[in-house]
Amino acid sequence: MRAGGDDEHAQESMRDDRPRVPADVLEGVRRRDPEALGRFFDMSFPYVYRLAYRLTGRREAAEDLTHDVFLKVHRAADSLQTDRDPMPWLATITYNACRDAGRRASSRLEVSDEVATDQASSSGETPDEALLRKEREQAVQEALLQLDEATRTVIILHDYCGLSHEEAAVALNSGAASIRKRYSRGLKRLATIIGSLEL
Fold this sequence. Notes:
Elements: H1 5-16, H2 23-30, H3 34-56, H4 59-75, H5 87-101, H6 113-123, H7 127-144, H8 149-160, H9 165-171, H10 176-196
């Protein structure tokens, strides 16, 4: 997103948090080895939770869906391509789980205190800085939930989960050119919505 310098910095740090899963863990996941599945869960849980939260806007729904995603990972483990970054594969499973749950359209906004606390403690923010960031975060989330589902999903996959437009296209079973156009139009619409909110 291009909503401002602070938002860009926050989103860059979210991209930096995209987990790097070792090849031996991926091989173990593909074999459904319990230890490897446990390590994959521990490494990927924040990534999946963040995506589910962004898509639903609700902490409880995101928690439920995150656990559901890892059940689906276990069932679909043999389709994991161990020579590739597993995050687009995981994002596809998460997106489909959220879509199938049918919770996004009727979700109300809820900012997760747990996420805010973790971010504040890790960044060394003062209480005032943490409050300001939380207010901005709430405004962005509120704006995201006003976008149509397809546009919101493209922005979330790219800006919050670190997927390239090509990876998002695979996750959404679409063309990369279409994803780029949707993303560009979505950013303009999002900037308009954020500009109309009282911060």
